Amino acid sequence: MEKTDAIAALAALAQESRLDVFRLLVQAGAEGMPAGRIGERLGLPSATLSFHLNQLRQAGLVTFRREGRSLIYAAAYDAMNDLLAFLTENCCRGEAAGCGVIGVAGGACEASTTVTVEQGSVRR
């Protein structure tokens, strides 16, 4: 991941509602979630949600697909993994395990992996 891509991703996640949206999509797994359900779950009006989803999409953190009249959004796990790798690539002189960095199995987040987030864990 390029430094500018990391900055864009971190900037997108530095807003509370966008971070909530992204974490919800990580929980939803690869199948994603319709925009309407995201808004309902987080109590965000359509226009506000659309703005935040667009910001996350421009940062490369979410993808979407159309199913009928619905837009289904999903976390871009490759981008998430790239960001995590960028942030930890020089940790402890390349010995991330030595400084307590919790990695994702095999360096990648997959549909059956548990990813440690803050104090809890998110199962997909």
TrEMBL record:
<dbReference type="InterPro" id="IPR036388">
    <property type="entry name" value="WH-like_DNA-bd_sf"/>
</dbReference>
<keyword id="KW-0238">DNA-binding</keyword>
<dbReference type="InterPro" id="IPR036390">
    <property type="entry name" value="WH_DNA-bd_sf"/>
</dbReference>
<keyword id="KW-0805">Transcription regulation</keyword>
<dbReference type="InterPro" id="IPR001845">
    <property type="entry name" value="HTH_ArsR_DNA-bd_dom"/>
</dbReference>
<feature type="domain" description="HTH arsR-type">
    <location>
        <begin position="1"/>
        <end position="95"/>
    </location>
</feature>
<dbReference type="InterPro" id="IPR011991">
    <property type="entry name" value="ArsR-like_HTH"/>
</dbReference>
<keyword id="KW-0804">Transcription</keyword>
<dbReference type="Pfam" id="PF12840">
    <property type="entry name" value="HTH_20"/>
</dbReference>
<dbReference type="InterPro" id="IPR051011">
    <property type="entry name" value="Metal_resp_trans_reg"/>
</dbReference>
<protein>
    <recommendedName>
        <fullName>HTH arsR-type domain-containing protein</fullName>
    </recommendedName>
</protein>
